[in-house]
Amino acid sequence: MARKKLNKQDALDYHSQGRPGKIEVVPTKNTKTQWDLSLAYSPGVAEPCKEIHRDVENVYKYTAKGNLVAVISNGTAVLGLGDIGPEAGKPVMEGKGVLFKIFADIDVFDIELNTRDVDEFVQVVKALEPTFGGINLEDIKSPECFAIEERLKKELKIPIMHDDQHGTAIISGAALLNALELVKKKIEKVKFVVNGAGAAAMACVKLYVALGAKHENFIMFDKNGVINKSRTDLTDMHMQFATTSKITELGVAMKGADVFIGLSVGNVVTPEMIKGMAKQPIVFAMANPDPEIAYEAAIAARPDIIFATGRSDHPNQVNNVLGFPYIFRGALDVRATQINEAMKLAAVRALADLAKEPVPDIVNLAYNERNLYFSPNYIIPKPLDPRLLCMVAPAVARAAIDSGVAQKRIENWEAYYEELNHRLGLDNQLFRIIGNKARKDPRKVVFAEADNLKVLKAAQVVRDEGIAHPILLGDESRIRQLADDNGIEIEDIEIIDPKSEEMSAKRHHFGDLFFQKRQRKGFNKYEAGKIMRERNYFGCMMVETGEADALISGLTRKYPDTIRPALQVIGMEEGAKRVAGMYIINTKRGPLFLADTTVNFNPTAEEIAEITMMVAKEVRLFNMVPRIAMVSYSNFGSSPTPEAQLMSKARDLVKKMDPTLVVDGEIQAAMAFNQEILKDSYPFSELVGEEVNTLIFPNLSAGNIAYNLLQEVAGFDAIGPVLLGMKKPVHILQLGSTVRQIVNMVNIAVVDAQHKCCHSEATAGVTKKKRK
Ligand SMILES: NC(=O)C1=CN([C@@H]2O[C@H](COP(=O)(O)OP(=O)(O)OC[C@H]3O[C@@H](n4cnc5c(N)ncnc54)[C@H](OP(=O)(O)O)[C@@H]3O)[C@@H](O)[C@H]2O)C=CC1
Ligand SMILES: CC(=O)C(=O)O
Ligand SMILES: [Mg+2]
């Protein structure tokens, strides 16, 4: 299924729905009690004020300055949209703020200035210096951007970077080095044509020269044509790259050129121009949002091309998002006074090197790729690569220290890497990855409650996002009416009404199959046929017979009423003695897996051990190593009660079943997450030095209460309950789940179906069939 093409309305809705825009300010300290408030504000706040007044360096200790970057623009060169003004540029600046946060945990205030005057711009930014740890200048047109950056660099003591210049130069420089390596051309020999002579283009050519390219091998163009010595409208900077050749046309310049760099506007290069380039041409068409030539046209023009754009929907995204979060992270972490050439070159090398490393599964999954490797279609790391932070930021920090612009040294690099890893967490990643894994091989998912608005919306989302092929169960006219009334498009989604006359043969068939299963378990033939009018039975039978791959239900019914048909029709997977419910809580420290939250009331130690083994298997499905705490109210025998001993006995049984599993207890939840106390008090524990990601509870009440509190009070996002131990994927929603929670469950169901299908076919010795 092709992914839905992004349209104008999607983008507008994304920005306008809920709280308008993409960002908000969130306090980092407790603010709940009067006591908290008297610390946060008057009178307590006076103390840090006095400390900073005594020594201004303390501003880094007592305020957010050290992790706060200003993204500042006047809206004069916004993407390739041009001079659209500060307000119109604000969505881009908020977007940069989002990227800073999610990729490098840097907080951003976006600031849009209503001035085109260099002096005024500089004056305002200078006055902002006390607030910020760094300044990211963005989308300011040339030539003003050069003077603004130069003056601010001279006059301020915090790192300043004009992202469109240096971010772009660094990323494209890394991509260029790698592309040249692949085509075995030397940078000092290759001929460049550069379209655009603005902020980004000028900085790129300067950096390429620093990397070894020769001035005389560049021909540049701006809106008025070729940059040559005879022009009288050029700046000194342009003049450095002005050609003496007679060429005036872009197409002529591109004949025989090795490298084309586009940093201008969309669709100004034709396939013919590309056809005329040298062997194995390198073309970086980086204008946003539309490149100088579309991906399809460029690839069709030259099969031997190495092609990159600034966009995410094709291979080789050369976009400054690969740079600015990590460059600033490194600069802030050593309190660099500037971002200098050594730091930029360190970032180039780190990025270029990372593209040659084996690509982890997590990146392949995130991009729906089977096997990314250093090649013409992968010359630069992918923006969702979690290794970027740990590769680029330390390289930049080290270069700052070595080149003498760092005000703080990093003594323990191992601890620094750990801190960086911690900043990211796996939280957002997990959701992105499950989604991408599902999209790789979408499956047929039956929605038993399709006459519910939230379910219907979720079905549309999973269809549009290419996660699943939904099948809706229920009264067709009611479902269509609901869809019409709420603007939900379901034209191409299959709807089945199990009660309809049309389904009578299928009902009988399913009834017969069900009777065979349950004839000695309290169902007579008549009842078995009649019960197929119920959507949960009918849907489960579709999954059982392979007409669908997974079932989602339970939003509007009690849990036992939904799980019963699933157990009667589908049953447990081979070898499983029970089913169990697991929740995934999306915390800042990473995902937490909680069980049993929904099925087994008061399990024995043996039963808890089995549940633990099922959970461990599921956690591995998410490419994670389970690190399990068997939680209780006591620590390692500190209470002699049978309730506490239950968990320690269960732990022993788990260790017998799988000695390699990292699992310990009984342990209090707080102790499981407090490495310092754990190390001091219980140094023998397997959990010392391990970040716990799985909690097994002694009974259903405890598990259920814990996830509810985490979700409702702590406000964490949760997926669940994920039903473990079923033969085929049936997932039962909690009453009142949101659309996003339903979509998340569908993701899990599809991934589960992919896994269970491969598993059963592999055991049966059948080759996996390719699905539509
Ligand atoms: N992929 C990435 O990471 C990045 C991409 N970009 C993209 O690069 C482009 C330029 O950005 P930026 O340098 O910040 O903006 P500037 O406004 O500073 O520069 C734009 C340049 O493009 C030139 N230009 C405009 N139209 C044409 C044309 N038809 N033919 C040749 N040259 C033309 C302008 O010429 P003149 O000087 O005569 O006006 C100017 O030199 C944008 O599309 C932007 O999205 C920018 C940064 C990062
Ligand atoms: C990516 C970017 O910064 C731009 O296109 O302006
Ligand atoms: Mg930009």
From TrEMBL:
Keyword Aminoacyl-tRNA synthetase part of the UniProt annotation: no
GO BP terms in the entry: malate metabolic process
Ranges where the record places region Disordered: 1-23
Residues annotated as catalytic: K96 (proton acceptor)
Binding annotation for NADP(+): V78, L79, G80, L81, G82, D83, I84, G85, N288
Transmembrane parts of this sequence: 192-211
Malic enzyme NAD-binding domain residues: 165-401
Co-factor requirement: Mn(2+); Mg(2+)
CDD domains per the UniProt record, alphabetical: NAD_bind_2_malic_enz
Record GO terms (molecular function): acyltransferase activity; malic enzyme activity; metal ion binding; NAD binding; oxidoreductase activity, acting on the CH-OH group of donors, NAD or NADP as acceptor
InterPro entries registered for this protein in UniProt: Aminoacid_DH-like_N_sf (IPR046346), Malate_Decarboxylase (IPR051674), Malic_N_dom (IPR012301), Malic_N_dom_sf (IPR037062), Malic_NAD-bd (IPR012302), Malic_NAD-bd_bact_type (IPR045213), ME_PTA (IPR012188), NAD(P)-bd_dom_sf (IPR036291)
Keywords from the named record: Membrane, Metal-binding, Multifunctional enzyme, NADP, Oxidoreductase, Transmembrane, Transmembrane helix
Binding site for a divalent metal cation: E138, D139, D164
Highest taxon above the source species: Bacteria
Positions of the Malic enzyme N-terminal domain: 20-153
UniProt family annotation: In the N-terminal section; belongs to the malic enzymes family. In the C-terminal section; belongs to the phosphate acetyltransferase and butyryltransferase family.
Name listed for the protein in its UniProt record: NADP-dependent malic enzyme
Species in which this protein is naturally found: Chitinophaga agrisoli
